[in-house]
Amino acid sequence: MRSAMREEIARLKRERILEEARQLFFERGYQGTTLDAVAKRLEVTKPFIYSHFENKAALLGEISERGTARSLEAITRAHDREGDPKMRLADAVEEFVQVLIDHRANVAVYFREQQYVPEESARKIDDMRAEFDTKLAALIQEGVDKGQFRVRDVGMATLALGGMISWMYTWHRPGGRLSDAEVRANMLELVMNMLRASCGA
After folding, report:
1. Is the pTM of this model over 0.70?
2. Could you tell me if 129 and 174 lie in one domain?
3. How many domains, the chain?
4. Chain-centre distance for alpha carbon 190
5. Distances (CA, A) of 171 to 16, 138, 167, 183
6. Does residue 63 sit in helix, strand or coil?
7. Cα separation of 169 and 68, whole Å?
8. Distance (Å, rounded) from C-alpha 6 to C-alpha 4?
9. Are residues 119 and 155 in the same domain?
10. What is the pLDDT of residues 12-45, one digit of tens each?
């Protein structure tokens, strides 16, 4: 029990470090942020950070991986369950959009700072993005096969759909004129129009 408690405390400490590092990377950029600045924001010493992360690059790697991992989880849930492909894709799109809303800073930091992401993290992200594209393409193809989508090139549609939603980090702002639900609904409408989805199930 004590061991579990220690692990939970360590996890919470790591999360706090990641939270502040992510915000500073987002505000100042990776190159413009020092571990001293992260420590100051947390009101801790730099050795405290080193006790949880090897270096600043390790922070960037974990921050960058998270947005991609959440996106993959969303498409995997829709891909792996049975049922109507159009409805499954709709659920995946709405969840994917919410990931971009909830993890905007993670996504922004990754795209802005890709050149500094550690090689191991970059490989993991590339693998996750490839799996995401494969599963999204399979869902779209299933809808095409059932006459629910009309797409000339499934591969191109996959990249266009993923790119359109991923790019949300450049324009979506928390507290804007549209609620999260409205953003999800509007993005879903754009996706379905792009796929020329049938009106029926």
Report:
1. yes
2. yes
3. 2
4. 20
5. 26, 29, 8, 12
6. helix
7. 13
8. 5
9. yes
10. 899 999 999 999 999 999 999 999 999 999 999 9
Residue 13 tokens read as 């400490």
- Give the Cα separation of 6 and 151 in Å (integer): 52
pLDDT averaged over every residue in the chain: 94
**Distance, CA of 101 to CA of 194 (rounded, Å):** 21
What dihedral angle (degrees, nearest 10) is formed by the CA atoms of 112, 117, 119, 125?
Answer: -60
**118/136 same-domain check:** yes
**C-alpha to C-alpha distance for 37 and 147, rounded to whole angstroms:** 55
Decide: 62 and 113 in contact? Cβ < 8 Å: no
Give yes or no for residue 1 having a pLDDT over 70: no
Query: How many angstroms separate the first and last alpha carbons of the chain?
Result: 51
Quote the tokens at residue 93.
């799109």
By residue range, what is the domain housing residue 33?
1-53
Same domain, 35 and 91: no
CATH number at residue 179: 1.10.357.10
Q: How many CB atoms lie within 10 A of CB 76?
A: 14
Return the percentage of the chain with pLDDT > 70, whole number: 98
pLDDT at 7: 81
CATH value at residue 16: 1.10.10.60
